[in-house]
Amino acid sequence: MSTMANIKKNDTVRVITGKDKGKAGKVLRVLAKDEKVIVENVNVYKKHQKQGPNREAGIVDKAMPIHLSNVQAVCPKCSEATSFRRKALSDGKRVRFCRKCGETIE
Ligand SMILES: [Zn+2]
Q1: Which residue has the higher pLDDT, 58 or 106?
Q2: Are 48 and 56 in contact (CB under 8 A)?
Q3: Could you tell me the distance, in angstroms and rounded to a whole number, from the CA of residue 78 to the centre of ligand 1?
Q4: What's this model's pTM, rounded to 2 decimal places?
């Protein structure tokens, strides 16, 4: 299993390259097929929005997908930029854990 599969929605990630290098944000969506993620406040572009039933027409900020190779997971336990691995517990349940501190990640 590749590293990318270990990043999930609501994880915090940090951008390691590109125009938003150093920014961190919450993963809003994982696009597994494209190996991309949409991260809150990262890779934001102005988009023209058409008027809809619950929204005004105008220009809105929209976070665009970025490739998983451009981000690193931030561990909620040790706050280090890291990557998550998976392991099987004794009961067979598979969990993620931090490579740096070893803590289990929800
Ligand atoms: Zn950690």
Answers
A1: 58
A2: no
A3: 4
A4: 0.84
